[in-house]
Amino acid sequence: MTANRQWIYARKPEGEVGPDNFELRETPVPDAGPGQVLVKTTLLSLDPASRAWMQGATYRSQLHPGDVMAGWGTGQVVKSNAKNLSPGDVVSGETGWQEYSAMPAHALVKHDKKHKPEHLLSALGIVGLTAYFGMLDVGRPRPGETVLVSGAAGAVGSLAGQIAKLMGCRVVGTTRGTDKCKWIVDELGFDAAVDYQNENLDKALKAACPNGLDVYFDNTGGQVLEAALRRMNVFGRVACCGVVSQYNTSTPLPGPFGVPGFLVTKRIRMEGFVVMDFYNRRAQAEAALARWLDEGKIKAAVDVVEGFEKMPSALAGMFAGKNRGKLMVRV
Amino acid sequence: MTANRQWIYARKPEGEVGPDNFELRETPVPDAGPGQVLVKTTLLSLDPASRAWMQGATYRSQLHPGDVMAGWGTGQVVKSNAKNLSPGDVVSGETGWQEYSAMPAHALVKHDKKHKPEHLLSALGIVGLTAYFGMLDVGRPRPGETVLVSGAAGAVGSLAGQIAKLMGCRVVGTTRGTDKCKWIVDELGFDAAVDYQNENLDKALKAACPNGLDVYFDNTGGQVLEAALRRMNVFGRVACCGVVSQYNTSTPLPGPFGVPGFLVTKRIRMEGFVVMDFYNRRAQAEAALARWLDEGKIKAAVDVVEGFEKMPSALAGMFAGKNRGKLMVRV
Predict the structure, then answer these.
(1) Domains detected in chain A
(2) Which residue from A268, A288, B53, B124 has the least number of CB within 10 angstroms?
(3) pLDDT tens track for A50-59
(4) How open is the CA angle A145-A147-A150, to the nearest 5 degrees?
(5) Strand runs (DSSP E) across B196-251, as ranges?
(6) What is the ipTM of this complex?
(7) What is the pTM of this model?
(8) Which of A242, A261, A274 sits opposite B246 (nearest CB)?
């Protein structure tokens, strides 16, 4: 068997994350211990939260230099010491940035082989579940309401917006650049797009949300959050999914004006969530997402970079806003 | 009949509010129109939100110079053109800062005469309802949890903390100065007090909340909110009741660090509320508060200033942190 290539988290980022923070290492392919399976990675996910894991403890413990870089992947079982998994099974789990991983069977999710592997890391994976639970259980849009999604061309945002459309809402997305603005409207069915970098946010939101804002699905924090709170209606809701505007820095900004002032006067609920908290209802959400995909009601936008060696540069590209939809690397 | 003295909101505050912003005026006592009653004010409430009403639109429309200063009061009906109210009835409502007001009957609440008038503006009035609904419906403490209340020696905070004690929680309050810290512990039964001006907030909160913080009832915003978010446990709740740290200024500070970052990683819910939104359940809450008062389970701390002419200086004194419990003026 060939060697196992791994990307090691080598140095803590000062400012923006990039290839300098990682080192490629070759080690022997591990063996599957009792109750474990050996997984050969086929696709690896790139996530904004990766940067946060390097910075400090979040909902998971902090990564330390020398660790295999953490991350989610999908692959095939090549050897199994577990009853419920067999060679050839398609699984996903926190494989880390490596070609092979020996993992306990209980830490892996087994998938129906009928699904496209790319979908397992997008609409049918963590980002799909994040969009589903964050929008429906935290944001709770009602038909006819106006929903804003930041990072709308990103992995979670592209799905969150489409789910709000299925709820009968007017859906507006923020993203960067004319091309991505056009793409979320023409391809994903958003009602309007705002280029947060090149438009006056307050004016653009006023034009795009003539009846104000009822739900804001926040992937970014920062200036979009601040403008959304200004535009928000009474009894508005902010589903706090991520803070990508603040991940790629060592010196986060203060919080938005209007917290807690607008929260009181407009009775706004801001609520953070992490997808794992909803895993008891995972099967329900996966079934709904799979049905919507099958029926063509949502599109799983994926952006696949070819080649394991490109992991660090792909991560940097994501923070530069290069991807459309879910970014992943084919190993 | 004597003249009607009124305090007029005369000039918008630049910075802190004080006697300069008001003018005393004498006008004829108004007559009660059809469906109206004439109320002779006996006690007038002073509220932190008064300052916000001068600054801009909140949950109510902005006050403009020349208006009778807005405010809540209790008094006696002296003339009635309404079926459901008679002379001698004890009522409360938004009388404004004046000795007499002609008001539509539907805008007044009629009280059982068995209650102490001071209680009608404290535990049995808006501040009691605010503490009740904000703590129980927004904060939702569970027995054994740790609850922090800012402005704990104030009108709402002193009651919110006592209600959390009834729920079986460890209750910590923030206030200013050793005397008030001692008072909320010795007199109101808080488990611990933190002097936010003279102690290191992070250290003091760590000592006072050894198991972290589950609910924060926020009357202040500002640095206490920021420190509370740092100390908060996973699935913590922040009931946003007011922002007294920011009312008495024309240049509010940015929001707290940790919004929305901590909200995501710790799955915190921050939710603003205004007591009027719960008025459909007013009777239920008033009955509970009256029973707790009768049984000695809560104390209605009141701070009564004698004399209508002292309204503006009493308001300024409240922002200087002089009052203990609910501040009101006997007319």
Answers:
(1) 4-122+301-330 (3.90.180.10), 126-276 (3.40.50.720)
(2) A288
(3) 888 888 777 7
(4) 175
(5) 213-218, 232-240
(6) 0.88
(7) 0.90
(8) A261
